[in-house]
Amino acid sequence: MFAQIKRILVGRPIATEHQHHERLSKTTALAVFSSDALSSVSYATEAILTILILGGSAALGLSLPIAAAIAMLLLIVGFSYRQTIKAYPQGGGGYIVTRDNLGDLPGLVAAGALLIDYVLTVAVSISAGVAAITSLATNWGFPSLRDHAVEIALVCILIVTITNLRGAKESGVIFSIPTYAFITGILSMIVVGIGHDLVFGAEPVTHSIDPDIPLTGEALSLWLILRAFAAGCTALTGIEAISDGVQAFKPPEARNAAITLTWMISLLVTMFLGITWLAYTHQAVPNEFTHETIVSQIARTIFGVGPVYVFIQVATALILVLAANTAFADFPRLASFLSRDRFLPRQFASRGDRLVFSNGILVLGMFSALLVVIFRANEIAMLPLYAVGVFTSFTLSQSGMVRRHLRLRQPGWLHSVMINGFGAILTAIVLVILMVTKFVHGAWMVITAIPILVLMFRAINLHYRRVAEQLSLSGAILPPELRRHTAIVLVSGIHRGVLPALQYARSIAPDNVTAVYVDLDPDATEKLRARWRDWGCDIPLVVLESPFRSLINPIVRYIEEVETRYGDDVITVILPEFVPARWWEHLLHNQTGLLIKTTLRLRGNVVTSVPYRLER
Amino acid sequence: MFAQIKRILVGRPIATEHQHHERLSKTTALAVFSSDALSSVSYATEAILTILILGGSAALGLSLPIAAAIAMLLLIVGFSYRQTIKAYPQGGGGYIVTRDNLGDLPGLVAAGALLIDYVLTVAVSISAGVAAITSLATNWGFPSLRDHAVEIALVCILIVTITNLRGAKESGVIFSIPTYAFITGILSMIVVGIGHDLVFGAEPVTHSIDPDIPLTGEALSLWLILRAFAAGCTALTGIEAISDGVQAFKPPEARNAAITLTWMISLLVTMFLGITWLAYTHQAVPNEFTHETIVSQIARTIFGVGPVYVFIQVATALILVLAANTAFADFPRLASFLSRDRFLPRQFASRGDRLVFSNGILVLGMFSALLVVIFRANEIAMLPLYAVGVFTSFTLSQSGMVRRHLRLRQPGWLHSVMINGFGAILTAIVLVILMVTKFVHGAWMVITAIPILVLMFRAINLHYRRVAEQLSLSGAILPPELRRHTAIVLVSGIHRGVLPALQYARSIAPDNVTAVYVDLDPDATEKLRARWRDWGCDIPLVVLESPFRSLINPIVRYIEEVETRYGDDVITVILPEFVPARWWEHLLHNQTGLLIKTTLRLRGNVVTSVPYRLER
């Protein structure tokens, strides 16, 4: 039954030989890998304005120089990443580049930071997508949809999780249309908006309930400007996705990835600056009463609440859902790298039926759903946790690239050192700004979580290394030929299901079998003794007392005794088990067999199940 | 670790031989078994008034005759139950009496109805207890406590569940004080209140926010009166508890139980009529704004918001929590009867460490918590579901008693037939009134759930009977002596953990062992082949292809082949398993071994685990 449900949701298994066919063209890859980066323009401007408004309406004009600074940062980081793609055509995410060039510990820091950021990407993007839809609903007269933001967000996460479990190729097809719709919608809005402004002048945004803008707020300090800048840096999240997934491109992988990265950065800078400009000229501000997004405010002021506005809102919501999808491509891949290097459990490295890393997808879905519930699907409240991880990874991986250029000294290395070195220094400065300005607003959680994750990675790695040492065959000797067998059959009564187990026991240990029964009810014990004479196959029956009604303890004590007495024998504990004909019937039988088997296995006992199948 | 937590919460195991010492004296039994019945006076009057108020303020006076009718019903049903206690000194709940005299199907209907009612008892009582506390908090200036009613209720359910898992005797001691405090508090309130009214006249209740009482509401129809009567019948819930638990009394059990029942009915009638009278004279009405209970309104009007008022509210809250405890005594006991008769899974019949039916307690805790969450801890909203079950059981068990008297014709049988017959007819009429008047308000859920439960009971019973037939030894023949052994060792590689399994396989099937490996990665397979020559103990290695990366399917297909080829052999599938040294390390290893074992067990294969313990 479970198998059928899985089949319907996830689809039929795909054979391993089809693996390399699941590659993406540049246009599809842009949709799959860039939606995270591009979609951040839908909340980055709003994040800046949310901080600036604390300085009063006069401070809002600062959004333009701040956005320009962030756009510069974007170009520099993007340019740096082209170097990474060239150097790591097999795929160079922050973890691989950092570990390769700076060693294990920095590599694990980068990995931990990125895993956290991917979870946040899903939670933030889905929540922002829901905000786009509830803004639309509010303008259509359904403001109460906002009350169901959490439920809608959870359903979206579920859909994205299932889509990803089905596999990457289909994702590409499903995801291309909304990404290009979003790009078209936002670029049209910018062109029409600026054109209209030039000809007719910009009209200010109107609100059904006016937001509460202080005329003068806190002093317009450098601190406030840095906070606003830090808030806007969420625009950079996601630009590393392409360098992480070079292998998903059609050959020549590196070249195609680099071209796609350039397209993406250009689109990102254009849209971010355009939206910030329009927000400034149309005086759009975050509204704490209606929760209407900045993009929604601008779009309906330029186009009215008509079909174009609806198109932009729906496209925004869809691309944000797809942005979550970028994390669903990256988190499982990074987890599989960590697993392959034995820093995460093996399960993250194995591909499921549909050739995707199913376990990583499921874990990401669960953690991001948890964040959505905790933060009630309010993406603005999550932003202080966001971007710290990705800038940690930027800084470490650019530093790693510098080290690499210095070591390899390939042609043009000095030029490369300068590019990556400048990128590293700049992102390090931004990282410090992020950590300091966002610390009390939530970044402390991420800053404490990263070392915990690193400790976990190392504990797991230590375990795997110890196991490998202990299982190593070097110096091993073949165990001696086995001596006499002793068999213990655990019986809960005497019935047809027990007979095959008794026969099996006699066949492996002809001269040393006992049947063991735990006395929980004197009447039942008496009955058993009487019938054992006829049906016990001449095997002696041992009845164990159990004053506290425990099954396990008397059995373990008895086995200890046998081990002392027949120290040289191989002891096999045999459990007769009957197998019901229908799945739900399993629930009706004591699960104690499983408990006994687990306990004995942990003790190191050889345990044999002899099943007896019921026909109906 | 889990074992330690359990020890702290539940306590040390109690030996079986202490079982019969856990008996209750009459005063303790009154506390344990009567809290459900007695505590219902804290909401029964309110339930009547909530309906009557729909007819406008003029209708409120009808509460007095309605309460008098319910009091009569109480006396008659109580008197009937004395007959049951006499006839069933070993304990005669609705299920046993009905099944014994009317047969399986009516017995199961009674059982299903009672199980549902016990879950409701917990949910309603705990929610009403929380309402007593939030009313107190409101009068002390903390009205916002009402917003956390659900959380408080869930914590209370958890505490009661754990207390019951610890065992009945301790419960008795803990629970006596609040029950007697409640009785003292309510009786004092009635005496002082009526006395004060006679001397000085009754002053009306004042409200911080006045409730919305329509002067004229819907027409004062018979329908409205019947609905109010049906609502007040919740006062009868719980009076069957004593007859269900006669065995828990000290000897002579039946006599002590009958005396306790008489005390309980007298107290119940006095308190119910007293509260209804005071509610009438002081014009107390349900307040939909403050959610203050009727008892709270009366108590503070009579005593002021002083220590006596606090005493009454706290005692009310505590006895309501204890009322939930009655269900925690009854539900697991009824479930154990059903389990003993094979209508519920066996697990409900086995006593846990502390001699209580732990599984019944846990299931009740979970379902009642679910109800509290669904109904947001609003006991008035749950009342329409309540009492249908208990009146179903009243009617069936009284009818059963009539049948019994007619059959046995013991001395005085005619007198007994008249008492029980009158009780049966009366409760049947009330049951019809309850079902009709409450149907659309929620009773439909119970009316549809009962047949579903009955079907479940019968399906479980059918299963157990089929299993017993199939396992019966009558006509069985001893299976033939076992022929040659064939062993298949499933290996995931070659390391020290595999060697003992290979040796074990050779020892049980010296001439017919193969090792089987599933090829998921060609490189790993090549390595394994190379090392197998040195370490394979001369056992042939079979490598299975797996184009869809499944481990199970190729293994099952291979075993099918072997079964065809060596049809006469006993085939044993051997799994080498290594056992990590620390518990968390188990999470790090593929759980596929468990999946393989389960699959093979369902096929009927003999499966042997050969563990290899890691030291660190």
From TrEMBL, chains A, B:
It is a multi-pass membrane protein. Keywords: Membrane, Transmembrane, Transmembrane helix. The chain crosses the membrane at residues 47-77, 108-137, 149-168, 180-200, 220-239, 260-280, 310-334, 355-375, 381-401, 413-436, 442-460. One of its GO terms (cellular component) is membrane. Its main location: membrane. It is found in: Membrane. GO terms for molecular function: transmembrane transporter activity. This is Amino acid permease. It comes from Chloroflexus islandicus. The lineage of its organism: Bacteria, Bacillati, Chloroflexota, Chloroflexia, Chloroflexales.
